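Subject: complex prediction, re-run

Hi both,

The earlier run crashed halfway through, so I resubmitted it with identical inputs.
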Amino acid sequence: MNGVEPTSSSTEQWPELSSLCASFLEHTPLAMATVEGGDHRVRYVNPAFCELTGKGREELIGRPFAEILPAKDSCLELVDRVYRTGEPENRIEPDCSAPDSLYWSYTIWPVRGADERPVGIMLQVTETTKFHQRSAEMSEALMLGVVHQHELTEAAETLNAQLQIEITERKRAELALQGAHAKLQVSADNLENTVVERTARLLISIQELESVSYSIAHDMRAPLRAMQGFATILEQECHDKIGARGRDYLRRISDAATRMDQLIQDILNFSHMAHGELPLRPVNTHSLVRGIVEAYPDLWPASADIEIQGTLLPALGNETALGQCVANLLGNAVKFVAPGVKPRVRVWAEQTDHCVRLFFQDNGIGISRRGQEKIFGIFQRLRADYKGTGIGLAIVKKAMERMGGKVDVESEVGQGSTFRLELQRADLKERD
Amino acid sequence: MPKKPILYAEDDKEDAYFMDRAFNQAGLAHELIIVPNGEQVQEYLTGTGKFTERDRYPLPCLVLLDLNMPALSGLEVLKWIRTYPAVSTIPVVVLTSSNHASDIHRAYAQGVNAYLLKPAHPEKLVDVLKTINAFWLGLNQPPPDPNRFVSE
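This time it finished cleanly. Structure:
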C-alpha cells in the first residue's frame, strides 16, 4: 500500500469498528430499522426512525413490522422478498394516506447469519417527498412549458401566416384601389374630354343649324320672290287677256308666296330667339315702344288707336328681342278685332320690387280659356279667318324666357285681351 | 363718251331677270351688265376672260353685289376689289336677301359703301334702282381714277 499510513496518535483515538457502527446508527439522520425472522419482528430502531414514525423505541421493539407500517403499504412485500432472496432492493413508494403526495424511498438489504442465509433485514427509509415532487413538478412544468412553447410557436406561426395573408390582401387591395383610382381619374378625364368634345360638337351643330337656317332663308325666299314677281308681271302685261278669274288666280299665287315668305321669316326669328345670342342690357322701354309705334305705321291699320299711358319704366332685356315681342303683341292687338271695330290699344307699365311689367290691353275678340293655354305654342292658330303663321306668340314666349322674364295673358271671349310682359328691373342690375 | 356701266353680280336667274326688267322700267342712262358669279366680276374688272375689250366693257361706276353666290361669295369679291389697286375705290353696294347682322357687319368691315335688302316684291326693284341712281350716280361724288394717285 502506497497510501499515507494513519499516524499512531490518530489510531489510538479512533474507536473500534463495532462502536463506530453503533454510534453511526444512533446519530445518523437516516431512519433505519432491523427486523428479524420470517414475521419481521422489530429488533432495532434508531432515533431517526423513531422520529420519522413519531413513536418511542419501546413501542416499536418486538412488534411485527407489518403492524407499524401504514395500511396497504407495499413495503412489507418488499421486506418479504429481500428476506427470501437475500437480494437488496430499492423502492420509492407514494404515501396514499398522506394529505400531500408523499414519497418514501426504501433501501432494504439482508442481515445474514453464520450460514450466509438471511436471518433478518436492515431497512433504511427516507422521505423523498419535496425533492421528488419538485422535480416532478418541474418536469411537468418543463413539459407544459415545452408544450406551451410549441403551442405558442404554432399560434405564432398561424398568426404569422394570417398576417402574411392579410398583408398580401392589403397590398392587393391597395393595388386595386390605386387601379380604381387611376381608372376613376381616366374616367373623369374622359368625361371632361367628352363634355368638351360634345360642347364643341354642339356649338358646331348650332352653327351648322344657323348656317342651314340662313341658307334656307336665302334659297327658299328667292323662288318665292320669283313667284310673286312673275305673278305681278303677268298681271301687268296680260291684264286684259287673262280676265278677272285669271287675275284672281294670280292674286292667290302671290298671296300664297307672301304667306310662305312670312312663315320662313317667322321660323328664322323663332330659331334666332331660341338659339341666338341675346345679351341683356338696360332697355328704355318707353322709347322702344314709342319708336315701334311711330316708325312702322304700315304695321297698324290707319284707324288703329295705340296709346302709351304714363312713362314706361326701363327694364333689363335685349332691345332687338324685346322690340320683336312688342311688335308682335301690338300687331296681334290691332289685328284680332271684330270686323268693323276700330282697334284701341293701351300700353302701360308697373313696377314691383324686382320686376317691370308692360301691359298691352286691346279691345279685340278675346281668347277662350282653352285658347289661352295654346296660343304660346309654335304653329298654334285659333282662328282661320285671321291671317298669321301661328309663330308670333311662340317667338314672344321664347324671347321672354331667354331674357329671364315671362309673358302671360288675361282675356275673355268678346272682352278683349291684356298681355303682360315681365322683365327684371334695369336699376337692380346696375346696383350689382 | 358713254356713261360708265353698272356691274351687277347675281347667280339667281329670276332675280337677274327682275333686275334687268326693273332697270329698263326705271329708264336709267347707264348700261346694266349682269354677270352670274364672282369670278366674272374679277375677269370684268381686270379685263380678262371674255372682257378683254375695254372699249366694249369699260370699268363700271358702281358694282352691285349679291352676297350668296357659289364658289366666290359676294364678301370675297368685295374683299378682292378693295385690295386690287386699279379698282379698289369703286363704290360697291350689296343687294341681298340676308339681313343677318353678321353679314351686314362683315360687309361694312370689308369696306362696302351701302347694304341694301332685296325687296320682298320684285316690282319694288324699280324704286330701289331709282334711289341708287339718284344717290350714288347723282348726288354722290364718284372716286377719281385711281391711276392718278398710284405714286402716293
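The interface with chain B takes residues 214-215, 217-219, 221-223, 225-226, 228-230, 232-233, 236, 258, 261 of chain A (CB under 8 Å).

- K.
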